[in-house]
Amino acid sequence: MDYFIELLFSGLTRGSIYALIALGYTMVYGIIGLINFAHGEIYMIGAFTAFIVATVLSIYGFPLLAIVIIAGLAAVVWASSYGYTVEKIAYKPLRHAPRLSPLISAIGMSIFLQNYVLLSQTSDFLPFPALIPDFAFMEPVAHIVGSTDLAILVTTVVVMLILTLLIKFSKLGKAMRATSQDRTMATLVGINVNRVISATFIVGSSLAAIGGLLIASHIGQINFYIGFLAGIKAFTAAVLGGIGSIPGAVLGSLILGLTESFATGYVTSDYEDVFAFTLLVLILIFKPSGLLGKAANQKV
Amino acid sequence: MFSRKELKKAILTSLWFVFLTMPIMVIKVDAIERTIYWRWLNSLYMAVGVFTVYLLIRLYQHRKNSRQSQAGESGPSVGFLHRLLQNPRQRLLLFAVVGAVVVIFPHFTSTYQVNVMTTALMYVMLGLGLNIVVGLAGLLDLGFVAFYAVGAYTYALLNLHYGLGFWAVLPIGGLFAALFGIILGFPVLRLRGDYLAIVTLGFGEIIRLVLENWGEFSKGPSGISNISRPGFFGIELPLEQAILYTYYLMVLFVIITIFVVNRLQDSRLGRAWIALREDEIACQAMGIDKHKTKLAAFSLGAFWAGIVGVMFAAKTTFVNPASFTFLESAIILSIVVLGGMGSIIGVIFGALILILLPEYLRALSEYRMLAFGAILVCMMIFRPQGLFANIRRHYHYHKKDSSEHDSSGQDFPKSQPS
Fold it and tell me: Which chain B residues contact residue A90 at CB under 8 A?
């Protein structure tokens, strides 16, 4: 039973990290209908920024709490700046181009960012400092549920709540929903669509950066390639839930996280990544609109 | 030349990039030694670089604008190479020169160069194969390398277990890859473009992961070695000759590929692909079977990749899963995009540029992948049609004099490629 609960929690932890990344995919897709292939790289850059800032601060002897807050903020600020810049450079000029053009551009951006980090940092795995301390009250259950698991779950829930409030009630959220429904119409009623799209990229990138920070301190190491796999898996989650739908992305991520956790725990760990890819292929074949997505009828 | 506003914007942009690259390019930490390297010089390079690039882009835009306002709407400009190819005599001459160079080349250079050239030719073939899928049929396939892997492993395994030779496996490898293409394509091709891209990417990764993990079948990450080289009428060639032989074989294959792709382009099927790429719905309305046509493109592309895979295994005599990563797919895609989607000459030049350039500029080979990424983005933004755009056939209607105009009933438009 303990093993089951352990797997359950590890699945939920994975799922919530995927959810943080998947939200970026789904929000961008909802608004401009583009699979932002470089999103995984934004997550990786968030993790790297956090790593650099945290290590520098710890060398200068800052207290742990200060390190967590400053590194987190730095990750969010830089990742969202990257997200914003990537959109401006690689997607904005292609807004009226054929569908495949921005996708190819996104793939190029993803390769570019990976190698940019590889060349300016290193290709080795870097040890990420443990930012989340072992809480004393978690002592009795520490063998089943780690403190980092709890911290990740709590942070994710808080972030999700903030995001929901933002989208439901703020003016920006309203503008985002309007833009995703009909971009031309949104322009007509006086919404600055370009600004809304930029804001979407910034919000999505911030979420990815938080995810990057959390997972990196959970696993304890990073390298330039982590964004690729995490990106694909988060994308799988977003598709599973129905791309474009925000609750769908969360649901899909949790399902994917739990599936992976149980499959590796009970079946085999060799094919951990194959599960996700197979799931992706199967969903796209049998239910391309996902669990909560709307089946879009193509009109001529 | 530049207004003050533009200069100000250029400075702001470069400052923004300095900020952006601050943590990753400037600070390098060693977590174990607990030391920090501050590389402020990088910031300076970044600032100067971005400033220059920004102004260059503005200059390019200015010139483009002024040219457009001068010339107004002009027809598609035809490149030098295309003009050369349209004149039959010049074309023959060009082919003769290229052919002579290709034949003589290995006798003036080292075996190493020949090897490099063979690799480049393999990429030409891969590019032409992917060109059918991406360029002609407009299906973005990010898992092209999977079929390449299927071909390579088919040969490696059949050679290992049954001792089958190169020539026997060549068609089998191709057909096997095509079969994989059909199996994957059958359910997947109903998907819209971007979903298709992701599924093929996932498929490519699945193949690689299976090859890596299924040790009993594929010998896992350590790969299969000692694969026999292509046979030459049963004679065992010494290494140098074998490399030469592989090179000429590859040249032959490339020529066959070019011929086939060229003929395909103008065939009924090729036209159906192009029509499908331009507008699916209109195409279906014209009575073209969407699924069959797409499947044909997909499996033909896969077939080519399989053939090159067999060739690759025979050339290197060693395969392992590390040769078939997503990056390989990305390189092949870059070749097609750089050269110009759908253009045969473009793909050939794309492959030669992307494979040979980093080989000869060793200093640059570190920046190879960085450049590939940048190429994909820049090509999409500045020149989506590629370096050598595929010139579509144009049909001109030559107006005759008004006196003749109503008399001739069978006044068909004169069709001529331009």
Answer: 377, 380-381
